Amino acid sequence: MAQRQAAMQWLPALLVLFIGSGLAALIYEIVWFQLLQLVVGSSAVSVGVLLGTFMGGMCLGSLLLPRIVSIRHHPLRVYAVLELAIAIFGVLLLFVMPLVGRVYTAWGGYGLTGFLLRGLVAAVCLLPPTFAMGATLPAVARWVETTPRGVSWLGFFYAGNIAGAVFGSLFAGFYLLRMHDTATATYVAAGINVVVAALAVAIASAADRAEPVDIEFQSNPERRREALWSRPDTTEGAWPVYVTIALSGFCALAGEVIWTRQLALLLGATVYTFSIILAVFLLGLGIGSTLGSIMARGLERPRLALGWCQMLIVAAIAWTAYMLNESLPAWPIDFSLVSDTWSNFQLDLVRALWAVLPAPILWGASFPLALAAVVKQGQDPGRLVGGVYAANTVGAIVGALGASLLLVAWIGSRHAQQAMMLVSALAGILVLAPSMLGAASSRPALRWIGAASLLAAAALGGMLIQSVSSVPGLLVAYGRFAPTWRGVAGEILYLGEGLNSSVAVSRSSSGVLNYHNAGKVQASSEPQDMRLQRMLGHLTTLMARDPRSVLVIGCGAGVTAGAVSIDPKVEHVTIAEIEPLVPQVVSTYFGAQNFDVIRNPKVKVHLDDARHYLVTTKEKFDAITSDPLDPWVKGAAALYTREFFEIAKQHLNPGGVVTIFVQLYSSSPEAVKSEVATFFEAFPNGIIWGNTHQGKGYDTVLLGQVEPTRIDLDEMEARLGRPEYAPMAQSLREVGVMSAVDLFSTYAARASDLQEWLRDAAINRDRDLRLEYLAGMGVNLFQSEGIYNDMLRYRRFPEDLFTGSEGRKRALREAIERAPGGEL
């Protein structure tokens, strides 16, 4: 008894260790996913493979460790070895991932082979450390006894691990990766693992290992009466509990996937938003696990609590659905009034807590209640925890993959949430019915009461399921600015939820067509937007030496790709588009603006994220351009890194051109400078072309070639005058560009001009994705005019860039001087 009491005295210290373990685990998870998505892609399929492998490793660890490690080994020393293993694998992956990436790049592709290779890469990188992560809780579980107090401590350990994960998600997203890089974040996490391991060994040395639980039960009748196995619940079969906790895991991860997607629309899809959402979800799980652990100590029949917990989840899902679909999009909030990003983060946190928290609390409480419902006399605590955790994780894997790869795109988020509610209700009935209607209810009156309660709960659940509404079109179209567009947004012509994103098309009262993605207008028939997209397409093919084959990154409204396609020299256009819905939508609604590009026989749409396509294809191109992308959207910064631009250069034929879009609105000077400086590192001869609106800077096009760029104004003018170029000349006239001189009068600067302006710019690299964090801080800023004017202060007329007759060069100089920004 003294040994057992001595062991129990150290349990609060172990709780602290689990907090540290959870903190390190979330840092690793964010870092690994960021690095691996650069290798295997960021499409829903790739993310699904990564998520499934990550959670699968944790499932295997929790299930197998109690079966391969003897109970005779000291639990805390086993735990210390596992923490050291996580640290070693975490650091090792920094060096292994580039090697694995090179192998994948050489052999990776599409179809079944490509899918299997993605899975193999994920398994090689993630299974070893995640196996160790999943094994930590079953290892330490052997330190506690299978009594109400002991099982409740297992729930507290789980809650502590989640509490650390909450801090880890915020620490990594708002500090470590914003201020440092993936290597620094990894070393911090590994250091935490080492400290946790050292403390575990110290505690093991200070406290004797407790006797096996069943020995103490045999020698102590009073403790035997206290044990959970003597409760009525433990006489029933355990399989309903395992099925219920698996279904709970399914609903929890399906809910996280669906609600993260909707909250990203509402809050803005920045890296900070995803950190906030993850932290809120984990916070709910931690609170619920704590409450469930407290309840597990005193409940006579924990199965009843577990079952009613699942029934309450039905109401909690209905609450979140109502908040996200109807309430929060109507809150009278105008983000343009506040330029302080940190104030907006506080509001985002409050809204996420208000909408999402109830269901995760109930899902978190389900885990300790499930432990209490299945524990039996003399049971190995490690196998107990490992089995329940594995069942929960299997359900979570199915839920995460099912929601992200199937449910939302197939039946929509409304029906997906209704399915979650139905599954939760069935899970509740599965454990409630035997306890309330079976042999455990010896009196007929109790059975009748139980039956009536279940029928009433089922009826109420059915009403709540019917109450779930669809995602509002205004939210998909305008995201965080939906309240300011209420009543003036015009007509929503199309609304669709795809595999990777939600898409909408609207038409304003003035007849302007808008293409919406990521909760904002991505393209429109507005003059300034059409001008940008036509400039992107036409500059790309006019500047390339022989533009026969062109890659367009992202389809958007198809205007950029359409401008590329009408160049008579272009024979083949490849559009790399991540969302399958987009080509279907733009071919229906934007055919007049994009020259019906999707149906053009020279155009091929490749459904994949552009980076993954470019690193795995063997094809080379005469030009590569990008439809407008928002760098503040999580994942987009991977298309603006130094390494990506090098990949693009490697896929260029001699005389080839790369052009990209750089937005000045909804951005900060630091983010714009990062984009420009990173591009100019890869293309030292790079040029900036400006697109203005109402005489003010709006956005820009960056153009780069490996060889020094030379522009023959006479040849360009003659080309646009040829009959075969008539469609291109007409396309330019439609956006106010009447001649080659007009087109090139948009010259804003080149790399040699801007060395002083870019002196302190942060280079965006794969190892840190610095732009993702800089752009996310400026998403609510409107400083485009100031950024553009500041850039133009360094502009000089490039005598060596333009050739041709003196008359045309003089006309170009005068046109540039008349353009926004003034004299040269």
Low-pLDDT segments: 209-230
Radius of gyration: 30 Å
**Count of distinct structural domains:** 4
- Number of contiguous helices: 30
CATH architecture of the largest domain: 3-Layer(aba) Sandwich
Strand content: 5-15%
How would you classify the helix and strand content by structural class?
alpha/beta
CATH topology of the largest domain: the name is: Rossmann fold
Number of strands: 14
Strand order of the largest sheet: 7-6-5-8-9-11-10-13
Q: How far do the termini sit from each other?
A: 88 Å
CATH homologous superfamily placement of the largest domain:
Vaccinia Virus protein VP39
Look at the structure and give the mean pLDDT. 88
Per the principal axes of the C-alpha atoms, what is the gross shape?
elongated
State the major sheet.
8 strands, mixed
Helix content: 55-70%
CATH C-level class of the largest domain: Alpha Beta
